[in-house]
Amino acid sequence: MIKKLSSNLMSVRHRINEAAQAVGRTGAEIRLIGVTKYVGAETTRALVEAGCLDLGESRPQMLWEKAEALSDLPVHWHMIGHLQRNKVKRTVDKSDLIHSVDSQRLLEAIDTAGRESDKRVNVLLEVNVSGEAAKHGFQPDELGSAIDYTAGLQHVVVRGLMCMAGLNGGLDDARREFDRLKQLQTKYAADSPGNVELKELSMGMSADFEIAVQAGATMVRVGSLLFEGVS
After folding, report:
1. Is residue 230 part of a domain?
2. Minimal CA–CA distance to 165: which of 133, 212, 201?
3. What is the CATH number of the domain that holds 13?
4. Cα gap 156→115, rounded to integer Å
């Protein structure tokens, strides 16, 4: 299993590097988040042993369980799916970065959990750049207000922005949406408050991560490609 996972991991990293070089970047600028939501703890452990130390989970309960099961390994856990406020406290304690912060009420809950845990919580603001009603995230014209709100929080640090390409569009649509997130980063980065850095762009998945890299992604979230041929 580890041999196949290592091969898949090498292939994805090679593709990241190729996409980066095509626009004058290097693969070292992009962090690969291995999305493990469809595999169990044993396969997840094998992926870490193959060399992927950043892992993403979409469901809080699965993140908690796997973080405990793999607590002996140097994993950086990323919460990448929708997070309900009643699951914030435990998620804050288990994760290194929450990608999917999509409302001021969630920001408030995370700040409260950070105060209770005596830590500053690293988050990304999720932006609904596709405009799809089914998608979570701040609307682009709400982002400025969200950033202003965060300035008053003592236990939240906004490291950047996150998005998902639209479900119904093709690669050209994805490119436009990733470009839009990069534009929003540029627009708000210069005048952001001290606890808002906006250095990270989390965008791109198995089907479109190369386009995301070329648009400026610093993190890509890849799952299925890493587990091809793994039983």
Report:
1. no
2. 212
3. 3.20.20.10
4. 9
3-state secondary structure of 120: coil
Residue type, 136: H
User: Residue 183 in contact with residue 201, Cβ under 8 Å?
Assistant: no
Q: Please name the helix (run of DSSP H) or strand (run of DSSP E) that holds residue 13, with its range, or none.
A: helix 2-21
Distance CA 13, CA 29 (A): 12
Please indicate, yes or no, if residue 231 is contained in any of the structural domains: no
> Total structural domains in the chain?
1
**Residue 83 maps to a domain:** yes
Q: Is residue 229 part of a domain?
A: no
Ordered per-residue pLDDT tens for the chain, 231 residues: 889 999 999 999 999 999 999 999 999 999 999 999 999 999 999 999 999 999 999 999 999 999 999 999 999 999 999 999 999 999 999 999 999 999 999 999 999 999 999 999 999 999 999 888 878 999 999 999 999 999 999 999 999 999 999 877 789 999 999 999 999 999 999 888 889 999 999 999 999 999 999 999 999 999 999 999 887
d(CA 24, CA 26): 7
What pTM was computed for the model?
A: 0.96
